[in-house]
Each structure stands twice: as structure tokens, then as C-alpha cells.
């Protein structure tokens, strides 16, 4: 996929050290527009996703969030942009990747892919939409 402009990334969490580290690492990449946002409630997350159309949302599995509920909420927002949700599993460098629809219609959450990343470049490639 070609990205001629900045790719908007949300790092959704509770402000943990892992959230901050992931956000700071991604901010170093010139193609990424990274915003760390605390999860406050469903309405705020729904509004942010609808108004700002993030390409990728990263979620730290260790935050006190219901991953299935939040992933369903994110993909319920109509969008003209392809979206991806990545759940970071910090203990084993494993990421769960959920890809969203390519049309404007809301969709159900796609099948989860479990991927092991070993380098920063692999992680950034996933955030950019690579496989």
C-alpha cells in the first residue's frame, strides 16, 4: 500500500510505560502521525475514530480494557479508510492483528492473525498496513 501522506496511528491505553514506549518508538518514523489517547469511554473512542479516521489503533493487552468490546466498537464506525487494530502482547513479542473493511460500511471484526515481531521495523510495517 502506498502512503503519500502521514498515516494516523492511535495508541489506546491507560498511559502505561508500555503505551508511552510504543508511542515514542512510532513517533520516530517520519510517515506516522502518532497520538496516544487514554481510553475514557466508548462514546469518546467512537467519536475519535469517526472524526479522525485512524489507520491503525494499537492496544496494550495489559491495560484494563475489554479488547473484544473495543475492537468491535472501532470496526462499527463507518470509514472510507482501511483500518487495523493491533493488540500488543508484551510478554512474548506477539501481536494480534485484526484488519477492518475496505468499504465505508461498518463491519464485524475480521479474523485475528497472531504475529511474532522481532524488530522495530517489523512492528512499524504492521502499523503501516503491511503483513
Blueprint (SSEs and pairs):
Elements: E1 7-13, H1 17-27, E2 32-38, H2 42-52, E3 56-60, H3 67-75, E4 84-89, E5 94-99, E6 112-116, H4 120-127
Parallel strand pairs: 1-2, 1-3, 3-4
Antiparallel strand pairs: 4-5, 5-6
Oligomer: single chain
Report the end-to-end length measured between terminal Cα atoms.
11 Å
Count of individual domains: 1
Strand proportion, as a percent range, falls in 25-35%
Number of DSSP-assigned strands = 6
Morphology: globular
Task: Specify the CATH class.
Answer: Alpha Beta
Residue share in helix: 25-40%
Radius of gyration over all CA atoms, rounded: 13 Å
Task: List the keywords.
4 helices, single chain, globular, Rossmann fold, 131 residues, alpha/beta
Summarize the structure.
The chain is an alpha/beta fold. Helix content is 30%, strand content 27%.
Walkthrough of the structure:
This protein has one domain (7-127): Rossmann fold, CATH 3.40.50. It starts with 6 loop residues before the first strand and ends with a helix. The mean pLDDT is 79. The longest helix has 11 residues, at 17-27. It has a six-stranded mixed sheet with strand order 2-1-3-4-5-6, with helices on both faces. It has 131 residues and is an alpha/beta fold. 30% of the residues lie in helices and 27% in strands. Strand 1, helix 1 and strand 2 form a beta-alpha-beta unit.
